[in-house]
Each structure stands twice: as structure tokens, then as C-alpha cells.
Design a protein that fits this description.
Elements: H1 2-22, H2 48-58
Length: 66
């Protein structure tokens, strides 16, 4: 019976040591900066400003479509 208790305590100690080693052993460690995601280019048909400009260019002075 004592062997089982010693085994459980040993496993608990090993688990705690591994967790402490995984975190670096310091609770005040600064978080790593996350890499910035690259900004994907916007297709012209998805760009509202482009669509407004295109519509403005296709309109005549009287407001009717070209």
C-alpha cells in the first residue's frame, strides 16, 4: 500500500515539474508578440471606394447612366 502512495506522489511531482518547465518557471514572463497577418489586397469589385468612383465616371452630368 505504501508503494502505491509513493508512486502517486512521484507522478504528481513529475507532472508539476514538467508544467513549471513548460511555462519557463516564471509567472511574470512577457507574452510573445503574435506575428502580424499580412493584409490581403482588396479586389476592385470588393472596394466600395472604387465602385463609387466607377459609378461616378459612368454617369453623365444629368445623372442618367452612360
Amino acid at each position: 500500500m505504501a508503494f502505491v502512495v509513493v508512486l502517486v506522489v512521484a507522478v504528481a511531482v513529475v507532472v508539476l515539474v514538467l508544467r513549471a518547465a513548460e511555462t519557463g518557471g516564471s509567472a511574470k514572463r512577457a507574452p510573445r508578440p503574435r506575428p502580424q497577418r499580412a493584409v490581403r489586397p482588396v479586389a476592385p469589385d470588393d472596394d466600395p471606394e472604387f465602385l463609387r468612383e466607377l459609378e461616378r465616371r459612368t454617369r453623365r452630368d444629368d445623372g442618367s447612366p452612360a
